[in-house]
Design goal:
Blueprint (H helix, E strand, L loop, with lengths): L3 H17 L2 H21 L4 H33 L2 H6 L5 H29 L9 H25 L6 H15 L11 H9 L2 H12 L10 H21 L8
Length: about 250
């Protein structure tokens, strides 16, 4: 019998094949963040300070889109189409199946961050990440937190038809207030407080520490890491308590 690791590897490869067979998923995971980076990077190309804000912002948005958004969409679709229920009835261990989904999202995030780093180095002359440890720590923390929150949000979506409205209703406001395209220091105080309480702005702050030398090392971003960790714990509780293999409607 195949080992658990072997089963996980096969499931992961299967999820990668499914991903590349879906052109729209590839577009929203890889091309859309790059389009934003190209557009806003071209606007502020001669302003290094603005580039130091845009590149970490796009990197943070990429983490959120490849984990939170993708898992919320996928799990809602799989649940409502009865796929999760059928998987539950097969000999495949549940942990292996969910692990394959999670590893697929992690792979997409790693590829997207690598693309953003290369674009910042080759196009915008930002140089290689001065604090790679800080970058890796915040990528891992962001992936874990947003993946769990994406699973949790999928439980609140009643059907797949309403998934785009619910997910975009969360995703769009969060990226707008969290400093993806501008420095949150320039927004009104109440919006800045909201952004700092949400997980994306601390993630962008930490990624900025890894990508921009002037932002400091990991020790300067421990508060941001703590905020992401708190949201991750919230995601764990909500993801476990609300998880269902059954469709919400017959």
């Amino acid at each position: 019998m195949p080992s658990t690791v072997g089963l996980l590897w096969r499931q992961y490869r299967f999820e990668r094949h499914l991903f590349w067979r879906n052109p729209s998923a590839a577009f929203f995971n890889f091309l859309l963040p790059l389009i934003f980076l190209a557009l806003f990077g071209a606007i502020v190309y001669h302003h290094q300070g603005e580039l130091d804000v845009i590149v970490p912002g796009i990197a943070g948005m990429s983490v959120m889109s490849t984990t939170f958004t993708a898992l919320a969409y996928n799990l809602t679709f799989l649940r409502e189409q009865g796929v999760l229920k059928r998987i539950r009835g097969t000999p495949l261990p549940s942990g292996v199946y969910l692990g394959g989904l999670a590893l697929n999202a992690v792979t997409n995030t790693a590829i997207q961050i690598a693309i953003v780093v290369l674009a910042g180095r080759l196009i915008f002359n930002l140089g290689w990440p001065p604090q790679p440890i800080t970058l890796v720590v915040f990528v891992l923390a962001g992936v874990a937190s947003f993946a769990l929150l994406g699973v949790a949000l999928s439980h609140a979506i009643p059907n797949f038809e309403s998934a785009p409205a619910v997910i975009n209703g969360v995703f769009v406001p969060v990226i707008l207030v969290s400093g993806v395209f501008f420095d949150v220091k320039h927004v009104p105080g109440f919006l800045r407080d909201i952004a700092q309480a949400l997980p994306l702005e601390p993630l962008i702050n930490g990624l900025g520490g890894g990508l921009v030398a002037a932002r400091g090392d990991l020790s300067h971003h421990l508060t941001a890491l703590a905020v992401i960790g708190v949201w991750g714990l919230v995601g764990v509780v909500l993801a476990i308590r609300g998880f269902s293999w059954e469709a919400h409607r017959n």
